[in-house]
């Protein structure tokens, strides 16, 4: 898998790290939502044992092995210019248009 980023998105992700180490995890959060899950970008210290690293530059991106099949091979993450959220798309799918970053580092 690969995530393409534009300069605005890269800058916003860099700001989210707040000069601390961390990785971005694509994650469908199903806790308390009563649905198939809400896509979030978690900032984590390190991968869980079930996570796979699928991209390392310019940021480390990972996802849970069990959720890998929910994503496409090439995707684009784009920051909203006027709101602190992101849109994740591929050539065939809109994965989410109001994706938030949640810092889960300890």
UniProtKB/TrEMBL annotation:
Ranges for the Core domain?
Answer: 1-102
InterPro entries in the record: ATAP_core_dom (IPR000361), HesB-like_dom_sf (IPR035903)
Pfam families, A to Z: Fe-S_biosyn (PF01521)
According to UniProt, the name of this protein is: Core domain-containing protein
Q: Which organism is it from?
A: Paenibacillus borealis
